[in-house]
Design a protein that fits this description.
Blueprint (H helix, E strand, L loop, with lengths): L37 E3 L2 E3 L9 H6 L3 H7 L3 H19 L14 E5 L5 H8 L4 E6 L4 H10 L6 E5 L16 E5 L8 H14 L4 E7 L3 H13 L2 E5 L14 E8 L6 H7 L1
Parallel strand pairs: 3-4, 3-6, 4-5, 6-7
Antiparallel strand pairs: 1-2, 7-9, 8-9
Helix pairs in contact: 3-4, 6-7
């Protein structure tokens, strides 16, 4: 029998189009030189070569299952622009509440990179190294995108399938994990939380910055319950600290960390 949302749950939300102008994701040529690119850290991010043509038209021509993987989803725009905006605020005011999310000289790993927008954004913002990860089928495109953005010196592409029961530890230093809109079906929730737990516990002090689009109450409850069960603390970025333009009511950005163990107060008293 098909699963149903609880009676008081929110309806599943349709994926509406972005509320901001469309961006040009293709490397400029003589015919598209005046188009508006997507900028992070003062640099454009490109997803297609001039020979391939308009990125959005290219994606529209793909079968549905490929279109999902090759599309640029709103969460990645919101997260990339938050990281850029936050870094600008840190530069202007060192008392920023999110200065731990300054990516300069940090080792960054992106989960479910898809088109790699957030990972390339981290590169543009001065990360010491960036690792883009996804299932093997997505890797050739990601490698091309790294090349288009002249990022191969500090950006690597590696396979990582969270659903693999024999998943091995990540053998690289990680300061910040980035993930955007990577749980659009319930079956991915527990594997996602599990891989975040593994990486954060292997890298003391590491944080995960997670952009999430709420689509149903059932998924929300399952996701945040899984974080709690796996010993992870989650806090929401104040909306006032998101980019003033690139935000949506149904998208939130969270910071995830390993919970700090605290002793029972009675035990503490006995030790005194």
């Amino acid at each position: 029998m098909a699963l149903q949302d609880p009676p008081n749950s929110k309806p599943v939300l349709l994926l509406t189009g972005p509320s901001w102008p469309a961006f040009w994701w293709t490397v400029p040529s003589a015919v598209n030189r005046n188009e508006t690119p997507f900028m992070v850290g003062g640099k454009p991010i490109y997803l297609a070569s001039a020979e391939e043509g308009d990125h959005d038209s290219l994606v529209d021509s793909l079968p549905h299952e490929q279109k999902t993987a090759f599309s640029v989803w709103d969460c990645s725009i919101v997260l990339a622009q938050f990281l850029d905006h936050n870094q600008n605020m840190i530069t202007a005011d060192q008392s920023s509440p999110y200065k731990d999310l300054d990516l300069r000289n940090r080792h960054v790993l992106e989960l479910g990179s898809g088109r790699g927008v957030v990972g390339i954004a981290a590169h543009n913002l001065g990360a010491a190294s960036v690792t883009l990860t996804d299932i093997p089928a997505a890797l050739p495109s990601l490698r091309t995108i790294v090349s288009l953005n002249h990022a191969a010196s500090s950006v690597s592409v590696v396979p990582l399938d969270w659903t693999d029961p024999d998943l091995k530890p990540i053998s690289m230093p990680v300061d910040v994990v980035l993930a955007s809109d990577v749980v659009w079906v319930d079956a991915l929730i527990v594997p996602l939380v599990r891989i975040i737990e593994i990486i954060l516990k292997e890298n003391r002090g590491a944080l995960c910055v997670f952009a999430y689009q709420s689509r149903s109450t059932r998924a929300d409850v399952k996701l945040f319950g899984a974080f709690e069960k796996h010993g992870l603390a989650i806090s929401k970025i104040d909306d006032d600290h998101l980019h003033p333009v690139y935000r949506k009511d149904v998208i939130a950005v969270y910071v995830i960390s390993v919970k700090i163990a605290t002793k029972n107060i009675n035990t503490q008293r006995e030790e005194l």
